[in-house]
Design the sequence.
């Protein structure tokens, strides 16, 4: 079943989508260094990078749909691991090496710059 969001839902989500943060942290997305708000999920950080596309992607934001899967290596990890970007809080120095097709499509404009 597809969830249809009303314009009001979207505008309230756009108004205050981020958890409070004081600093931006550097992470890498497919080799590109970007700055994103600390204390926020990786998917929220993707929204920070691409506010025009992520809110309109097919994301459930609550660990059901799996459309937000990524593979990432954390600073203390030897190997990368799969994770859900709607669940995992972005961490300075993390390197995201793979994106789901839905994320790739949404982030294409940002990663092309
Ligand atoms: S957005 Fe649906 S599982 Fe993460």
Sequence:
């Amino acid at each position: 079943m597809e969830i249809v969001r009303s314009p009001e839902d979207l505008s309230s989500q756009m108004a205050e989508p981020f958890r409070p943060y004081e600093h931006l942290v550097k992470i890498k997305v497919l080799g590109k260094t970007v700055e994103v708000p600390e204390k926020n999920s990786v998917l929220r950080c993707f929204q920070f990078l691409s506010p025009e596309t992520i809110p309109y992607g097919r994301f459930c934001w609550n660990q059901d749909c799996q459309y937000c899967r990524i593979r990432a290596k954390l600073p203390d990890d030897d190997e990368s691991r799969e994770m859900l970007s709607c669940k995992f809080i972005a961490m300075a120095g993390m390197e995201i090496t793979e994106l789901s097709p839905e994320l790739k499509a949404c982030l294409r404009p940002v990663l092309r710059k």
Notes: DSSP finds three helices and five strands in the chain. The beta strands are 24-29, 32-37, 69-73, 81-84, 95-99.
